[in-house]
Amino acid sequence: MYTQFSYEGMTVQINLYTLKLAAIDIGSNAIRFQVINVLDHNKHKPIFKKLEYIRFPLRLGRDVFTKGYVPDDKKQKFLQLMQTFKLLMELYEVDNYRACATSAMRESSNGKEIVTEVKEKIGLSIELIDGKTEAALINIVINDFLKDETFLHIDVGGGSTELNLYIDSSIIASQSFKIGSVRRLENSDSPESWDELKDWVLTNIKKKHGNVTAIGTGGNINKIFDLANRKIGKTISLKKINSIVKLIKSYTLEERHNYLQLAHDRADVIVPASEIYVAIMKWAGATNIVVPDVGLKDGLLHDMFHKNKKQVLHP
Length: 315
Fold this sequence. Notes:
The chain is α/β, with parallel strands linked by helices. It contains 13 helices and 13 strands. The protein folds into two domains: 2-131 and 297-309, Nucleotidyltransferase, domain 5 (2-Layer Sandwich), CATH 3.30.420; 144-294, Exopolyphosphatase. Domain 2 (Nucleotidyltransferase, domain 5). The longest helix is centred in the first third of the chain and has 20 residues, at 72-91. The chain is globular.
C-alpha cells in the first residue's frame, strides 16, 4: 500500500506500512516528542512501534500564566529544543510530522512571534490549537475504551482542562476551561473559571444518563494510576485516587522525587492536578475512572496516519 505526502515543499510517495511519523506536543508544563514506525498488522489495525520519545520539562505556563509572555531565556531554550527535534526527525528520516502548541503558547503575548521565528530559523511548522481541537485529537485515541454507556472524558493539562460527555459512544457536549495543573500551582486559576466548570458539569450530566464513568487523560492521572498499580484500561475508584493523593501529600517535594520516583516537574503539579480530577468526578457523580495512558501526541500520530491512509494510491 502506498500513499503520498507533502513534506518540506516536496511530494513523496512511500509504502504506507514503512511510514515514519513524528508528533510534538508543546504543553504548558512539558513538551513531548515522539517518533513512530507504522507496522503492517493484518492490514486493518496497524501498530505503532515507538522509535524515540522525549519529554522535556520546559514549563512555559509558569511564565505565561504569571507574566503573560515567554521570557527570552526560555524562548532560547525552546528554539534549541525545536532545532533538536528537527535534527532527530531528519536522522530518523521521518515522512511526516505535526507540532501543536496548547494553552500556554496560544495565550502568550509573544506566542505567534515565537512560532514565526521557529518557522523562519528552523523550518519547523507549529500550530497554535484551541481547546476544542486539542480535545478532538485526544478523543481519536480513546474510542477503543468507550462502550454504549455514559462517559465523561477529563483531560487536565498544565493550562487547561477539556471535558467531553459521551452517551453511547457519541459526544453530546464538549467544553474547554482555563483551569490546569500549572495554572493552579501559580494561583492563576480564577474562581469564575471554577464556577463555569462546575456549572457545565451539573448542567450537562443528568440522572437520565445513568451511571457516569470518567475517562482520564494527562500525565498526572497516568502517574496516580501507576502508583495505584493498575493496568492500562482498568478502572480506579475515586476513593483510591484520594488515598494515593493523601500519600503523595505526606511527602515533601524531594521525597516525592526520591521515594515515589516522580520527576521534579511532576512532583509539584500532581496534587493540584488531582484536585481538578477529583472535583469534576464528584460533581459528575462518577465513582470510577478509566485511564488509557494516551494523550495529544498519540492523537496527532493517529490522525496523521488515518488521514493519509485515505490517500492510498495503489492497493
